[in-house]
Amino acid sequence: MPQISNYTYDEITIGQTATCSKRVDVQDIQLFAALSGDVNPVHLDAGFAATTQFKGCIAHGMLSGAIISAAIAMQLPGPGSIYLSQSLRFRLPVRPGDTITLTLEVTEKKDKRGIVVLDCTVLNQQGKRVLTGTAEVMAPAEKLVLERPSTPRVHIEA
Amino acid sequence: MPQISNYTYDEITIGQTATCSKRVDVQDIQLFAALSGDVNPVHLDAGFAATTQFKGCIAHGMLSGAIISAAIAMQLPGPGSIYLSQSLRFRLPVRPGDTITLTLEVTEKKDKRGIVVLDCTVLNQQGKRVLTGTAEVMAPAEKLVLERPSTPRVHIEA
């Protein structure tokens, strides 16, 4: 079985990073629309989107937010973390076919409550910043090594 | 055809609100896991989740963030908005079966760039705050009345 583990508060160091990449496809945008209810035509209707300042469909900004939250829960600090807050600044649109790369970097540790502050930067395949932000997370006190649940398989109806 | 429309910057008033409710089901959590890659067992493995301080599965915090982003895009200001920033403070867990109610309230208008500031509050069915935050949105200058794209239909494989 594949496993996931975490970094405890004591293990985490200032400057520690984690990174992940994802290609954002039309299917991701459709899934986000189904999940959130955001069927704004700038995301789903290529004909309409072509008439906007974006000149084509763009992904929901919060889709990148979802990727950040996943990296915090799965990688740094990982399981056992308690997500306290997140700020997000949407800088550039992400388009279907773009590959985004997120980097989390620990910038501060608050010993009193075991909180780590993470700088969050999402770049597109051209190295341009599409999203920046800051997360505050209560890091786990205990080391966990857990079975990784399988990812639910979803199908989008054509 | 169902339609969606927006509030232009000039139409928006301080104190204006929009609200929406959603029951969060296991299927929403599975969809969010598939979309984000966050398969942390606290969300997906009831047996493991029962051993944590949460005493059962909880929804991903950013699922509530997705609901906020949808209400901004669909309701206030609606289509033509440009999402600039969002802050989120996760206060209480949301569990499968909970019904969450989001209220957006306009607290400020910044005439120079046509930006509105929205206070975002998500309550659970007990009226307790599960998430609070602030959004900054460039409101549309032009009135839009658009066909509402149908929501993509997704199936989760058992």
What does this structure look like?
Two copies of one chain form a homodimer. With 158 residues, the first copy, chain A, is of the alpha+beta class. The first copy, chain A, has a domain of 109 residues: Hotdog Thioesterase (Thiol Ester Dehydrase, Chain A), CATH 3.10.129.10. In chain A, 22% of the residues lie in helices and 35% in strands. Chain A has four helices and eight strands, in the order ββααααββββββ. A five-stranded antiparallel beta sheet of chain A has the order 2-4-5-6-3, with helices on one face. Chain A has a two-stranded antiparallel ribbon with strand order 1-7. In chain A, a hairpin with a 5-residue loop joins strand 5 and strand 6. The model of chain A has no long low-confidence stretch (mean pLDDT 97).
